[in-house]
Design goal:
Blueprint lengths: L15 E14 L2 E9 L4 E6 L1 H10 L6 E9 L5 E9 L15 H7 L6 E12 L4 E7 L11 E7 L9 E10 L2 E12 L1 H4 L1
Parallel strand pairs: 3-5
Antiparallel strand pairs: 1-2, 1-4, 1-6, 2-3, 4-5, 6-7, 6-9, 7-8, 9-10
Amino acid sequence: MIKNPIQEVTNKLQYRAIGIVRGIYKPNNKDQLNRGTLTDTEGKIIDTVVLGKTLTLIKKYINLDKSYFWIVYPRNKSTNNLHFQVAGIWDPYQLNQVDNTLEKDPNEILEELNLRNNYFSIRGELVYVNTQKKELVIKIRSSPTLRRVKDPNFKIIVEGDISLQFLKNFVSLDVIRDGSILRMVKYEIIEKTKSAKS
C-alpha cells in the first residue's frame, strides 16, 4: 500500500495549503541544508525552506543531484511571488518500502491516487475576490498544535474566479501550479464561516 502524499481530508472544515512538486532541491550552503531553491521539471526556480523533520530525511536518504517529489506548503504575497516550505518527500520506492518489482512510474502511481505533479489542495476562508484580475485570497489557519506561532493565520493568493456572493465561505480548491502562479481548476463551497454567521 502506497502512502498518499496528500492525505484525505478528515474534517470538512480542515484548513490546509499543501501540494506536491517534482524537482531538484539545492541548498544555498552545504553546511546549512534548510534554505535553498527547488528547480522544477520545467527549469523554474523557487525559493524554498526545508522544515525540521524533513532535514533528517534529506541527510539520511536523499541524493541532492536527483529529482524527487517534494510535499510542500506554498506561501505567496502576490500571484507571481511563490515560495515553498518543504514538509516531506514522496518517493514510493526509496521511502515507502514498496515492492520494487512493480517499478511503476511514480507519475502513474500519483494518478492512481488522483494526484499529479504540481497539484495543490487549498482549503480555507474566501476573504477577497478581485473579479478584474481573477484573483482570490484564501485565509488559512494553522493547526491548533502550531498555535505557539506568532500569527497562526496566513493568506494564499490564487488565480481564479469565484462569485462575490461566496465571500466569507469556507472553500476547497483544487489548484495547479504554473510557474509561480497557483491556478484554480475546481472549487467547492463548503459552508459559511462562523465569523460570517455571527
